[in-house]
């Protein structure tokens, strides 16, 4: 029985992750801590109908004190048990229509996409060290690949790409520091999803498809993905024509 905490759980991909997790048998997933910055009717409804398996947690990832308080609350709920999996999903994607010279949102992007991931991970690390699975999935994007930067240049979101590339570097540092403890820190790319952040109906995959495929990676036994940046595998997309192929391979950083 594994316990999970998902940040940014109020909508989109985060909400899909919570729904997918709670749909699994309680013998596989015991508790899902759904962390949101503010109230969420969807999470409240899931919690009400989950027989205690979904627990709403208030957490503003851009506030270190909030991360510490959330960790204290989760620790109390776990009653001496550890946390098995942390999914750092909360993120922000802002645009600079006139190119990088017009970018005035880098600070906010770093606060949420990099510092937020660091603060939450650091706050929950003692609980993760007591857990069995010891998995941390930081939700990334192939748009952050420096190798593939030219192909991704069409999207006028330099702050998003830069901050996610920094988050990938942060993921690797955690991976190296804690691999001997049995941890897997993963920069996981769930694909182009039909969410408000992702681009709505123009995108490739539903949040549900992305969630299921992402959990397939997270549930992989052992440390295969520690320090890696894997794409999800989605049947029918492994040989897709065009730039987006979801074949389970690693994105070139």
Automatic annotation (TrEMBL):
<dbReference type="InterPro" id="IPR036291">
    <property type="entry name" value="NAD(P)-bd_dom_sf"/>
</dbReference>
<protein>
    <recommendedName>
        <fullName>NAD(P)-binding protein</fullName>
    </recommendedName>
</protein>
<dbReference type="Pfam" id="PF00106">
    <property type="entry name" value="adh_short"/>
</dbReference>
<dbReference type="InterPro" id="IPR002347">
    <property type="entry name" value="SDR_fam"/>
</dbReference>
<dbReference type="InterPro" id="IPR052184">
    <property type="entry name" value="SDR_enzymes"/>
</dbReference>
<dbReference type="GO" id="GO:0016616">
    <property type="term" value="F:oxidoreductase activity, acting on the CH-OH group of donors, NAD or NADP as acceptor"/>
</dbReference>
């Amino acid at each position: 029985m594994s316990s999970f905490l998902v940040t940014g759980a109020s909508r989109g991909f985060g909400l899909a992750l919570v729904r997918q997790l709670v749909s699994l048998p309680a013998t596989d997933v015991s508790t899902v801590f759904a962390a949101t910055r503010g109230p969420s009717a969807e999470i409240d409804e899931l919690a009400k109908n989950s027989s205690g398996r979904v627990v709403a947690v208030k957490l503003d990832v851009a506030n270190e004190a909030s991360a510490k308080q959330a960790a204290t609350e989760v620790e109390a709920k776990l009653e001496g048990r550890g946390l098995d999996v942390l999914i750092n999903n909360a993120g922000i994607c802002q645009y600079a229509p006139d190119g990088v010279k017009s970018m005035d949102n880098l600070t906010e992007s770093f606060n949420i996409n990099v510092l937020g991931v660091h603060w939450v991970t650091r706050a929950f690390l003692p609980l993760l060290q007591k857990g069995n699975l010891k998995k941390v999935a930081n939700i990334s994007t192939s748009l952050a690949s420096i190798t593939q930067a030219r192909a991704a240049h069409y999207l006028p979101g330099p702050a998003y790409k830069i901050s996610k590339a920094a988050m990938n570097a942060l993921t690797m540092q955690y991976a190296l520091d804690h691999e001997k403890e049995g941890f897997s820190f993963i920069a996981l790319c769930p694909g182009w999803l039909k969410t408000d952040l992702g681009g709505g109906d123009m995108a490739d995959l539903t949040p549900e498809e992305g969630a299921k495929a992402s959990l397939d990676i997270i549930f992989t036994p052992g440390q295969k993905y520690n320090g890696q940046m894997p794409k999800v595998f989605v049947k029918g997309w492994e040989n897709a024509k065009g730039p987006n192929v979801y074949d389970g391979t690693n994105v070139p950083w």
